[in-house]
Design goal:
This protein is an alpha+beta fold. Strand 6 and strand 7 form a beta hairpin. It is built from 8 helices and 12 strands. The strands form 2 sheets. The chain has an 8-stranded mixed sheet. The N and C termini lie far apart (about 55 Å).
């Protein structure tokens, strides 16, 4: 399975659009959705003659917590610290569609939250599902960054922290190889942040962010390769206008 995730990461890096959308309510609760969509034009260039040979249809939706229940016996033998991490993902909904007939390959991860600090790092969802199914320890994971969120008063932060510089260097080098291999290809590989707030935006830390006409939403796009090589570059702070006082 680890090999599967490595191959999947290559696919996502060179032929994918990733969108991270958060909608906040006035009380700080909300919903986050991260969606991966295979860009067909990009993938066609990479797959070449194999593109027309695909024969697959799968459309499934499930909840992370269902896997905890299904594999309760092995889960109960997992270290308590690991269990606590997995349990934070219990309500995450995963939807996968793979259709070679419609040429639609997408997957999404959705989480409802009461406060921004409850939002989990959805990029790790598949890895953690695999850990539960196969009774792997979190210490075996090779993640090199983590994403966290906070929203207090009129300030929102998306914070990426590097947790393993050696793994980051390995990932950086892998992507450099991919860049060289697919140099000259016209590939779509975007990571887009779409955030919607209950009040108007006063300022954004990244000058490239596009603010909507009503100033309650923003959109910010990165190259997926840039994001994976330097995740900290996607850190973001948004300051909202103070709440009106009657």
């Amino acid at each position: 399975m680890k090999k599967y995730f490595f191959l999947l990461s290559i696919l996502l890096t060179v032929s994918c659009q990733v969108t991270e959308t958060i909608n906040f309510n006035s009380n700080g609760s909300g919903i986050i959705k991260v969606e991966h969509l295979r860009d067909e034009h990009s993938y066609m260039q990479i797959a070449k003659e194999n593109y027309s040979k695909e024969d697959i249809f799968r459309d499934t939706t499930y909840i992370f917590g269902d896997y905890i229940k299904k594999h309760e016996e092995t889960f109960s033998r997992t270290a308590v610290a690991d269990q606590n991490v997995f349990l934070r993902y219990s309500d995450v909904k995963i939807h996968r569609k793979a259709s070679s007939y419609d040429k639609e390959f997408r997957k999404s991860y959705t989480q409802n939250f009461q406060k921004a600090s409850d939002i989990v790092d959805l990029s790790k969802t598949d890895h953690y599902l695999d850990d539960i199914i196969n009774n792997y320890a979190l210490s075996a994971e090779e993640h090199y960054y983590k994403v966290s969120y906070s929203y207090t008063n009129n300030r929102f932060n998306r914070t990426v922290t590097i947790i393993d510089t050696l793994e980051q260097k390995k990932e950086f080098d892998k992507i450099e190889e991919l860049k060289a291999k697919y140099k000259g290809y016209k590939l779509v590989q975007n990571y887009t942040l779409n955030y919607h707030f209950p009040r108007k935006i006063q300022s954004v830390s990244n000058a490239l962010a596009k603010i909507s006409d009503d100033r309650k939403s923003l959109s910010l796009q990165f190259l997926l390769t840039d994001y994976l090589q330097n995740p900290v570059s996607t850190n973001l702070e948004v300051v909202l206008e103070p709440e009106a006082v009657d």
